[in-house]
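Fig. S4 source data, part A: sequence.
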Amino acid sequence: MARQIGKPRGPQRDPPQTNIFTQPMSPPENLTAVEASHWCKIVRELRGDWFQPENAALLVQLCRHLANADRLARELRGLSPKKEFTRYTKLAKTMQTETRLIAILMQKMRLTQQSRYNYLSANQYRNPVTRAKVLTGADGKPRPWNEGQIMATPPRNDKNNGHES
């Protein structure tokens, strides 16, 4: 019996089905009006199935931190750094902490701009040789899903495949 090479042939599995037309999750009852408005802004901008009930706790915390950051920004705008230096610096440090926490939560939930970029715009794919390898298949022809992408021709006398030493 000949040894099988490649993927085993078995029953084909269907990819998981997602429903992009599901209604967005409504904000929990324990959020304030400002926090709930942040919730609605975030949830309505994404597919209906982006947030699952198990992600609601992270989203609640993000909305609370966003509301706190808004409140701190209003307070900071009303203060004069020269007259109320101690209070101003304390609020500025608190604002910095809130901003850091917001960034962490948004990264964890893949809400940042970086998580939405096309993989071709990342730094490792700016090299023309690597870009050409990513956009083409093993046969050197463009992959069907990459048609229309700009193909860069690799340099001819490149000894190390376009990677810097």
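Fig. S4 source data, part B ends here. The radius of gyration is 25 Å.
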